[in-house]
Amino acid sequence: MKRLGKNTLRIVEIAQGKFFQFGFSRVTMEEIAEDAGVSKKTLYEQFASKELLLKAVLDQLAREVEAEARKIILEQKLDFADKVKALLTLLGLRLSRIGRPFMEDLRKYAPERWKEIEELRRRKFTENFGEVLRQGMARGIFRNDIDPQLLLLMAITLINNMVNPYVLLELPYSPGEMLEAVFSVFFEGILTGKSRNRLRRKIKNQATRRRRV
User: Fold this and answer.
1) Alpha helix ranges (H) inside the chain
2) CA-CA distances (angstroms) from residue 159 to 15, 29, 139, 141, 187?
3) For a designed S-S bond to 4, which of 8, 77, 92, 111 qualifies (C-beta 3.0 to 4.6 A apart)?
4) Phi and psi of 142, rounded to 5°?
5) Predicted local confidence at residue 46, as pLDDT
6) CB distance 162 to 178 below 8 Å
7) Model confidence band, residue 123 (pLDDT cutoffs 50, 70, 90)
8) 55 or 157, which is more confident?
9) What's the sign of the alpha-carbon dihedral 71, 74, 76, 79?
10) Is 168 a residue whose pLDDT tops 70?
11) What is the domain partition of the chain in residue ranges?
């Protein structure tokens, strides 16, 4: 995915905000041009159709998530639990920005485009999350009675299927609630007793800090 120039990026960011909030079908190119402070002619010189602008919006979203995920994975100061929590939080925050109208529009009007993004999401998530799990395995924080490859397959399959825009569209839970459940139930079950107790203390401390804010 080619990086965008400053002016083009501004248009894409404005389109992203409007698409995610109101849906792809409900937003016109004229509205985007007006909010971006450019003429409709200039907008169409950058993007010949709304479909191409939609592609740029989704490509930019994928690029942003990948950059943020890599930053988390490479951060040496974070332990395994912090990295998993940060990755799940990243997914939750990104998904929470995408409104129901946008997901419904993609399913109805641009299923092939969404399929491309879903395939990219699954591949990148498997790569990034798998790397964090392997880091945890190397540090011996998981129970030794679980096959490492099976553990990796279970974790990735579970999160990929639960933290999915189409699944969230049908369920009465927020991305944050889904991710918190995955984190507390699944990961507490596969950690060693010492690591599990440390994780519980960390979650308890985080909850206490949130109540004080």
Assistant:
1) 6-22, 29-36, 40-46, 50-74, 80-96, 100-109, 111-138, 148-162, 165-170, 175-181, 188-190, 193-212
2) 28, 35, 22, 20, 11
3) 8
4) -100, 155
5) 93
6) yes
7) confident
8) 55
9) positive
10) no
11) 64-212
Tokens coding 151 = 């553990």
- Contacting residues for 207 by C-beta, under 8 A, at least 6 apart: none
Rounded Cα distance, 44 and 53, in Å: 9
Average pLDDT, the chain: 78
Whole-angstrom distance, CA of residue 161 vs CA of residue 46: 35
What's the token pair of residue 169? 């569209």
CATH number for the region 64-212 comes to 1.10.357.10
- Cβ contacts of 63 within 8 Å, gap of 6 or more: 1, 3
Those residues with Cβ within 8 angstroms of residue 59's Cβ, 6 or more apart along the chain or in another chain: 1
Burial class (CB in 10 A: 0-12, 13-18, 19+), 4: middle
* pLDDT band at residue 193 under the 50/70/90 scheme: low
Can you tell me the distance from the alpha carbon of 201 to that of 108, in angstroms, rounded to the nearest whole number? 45
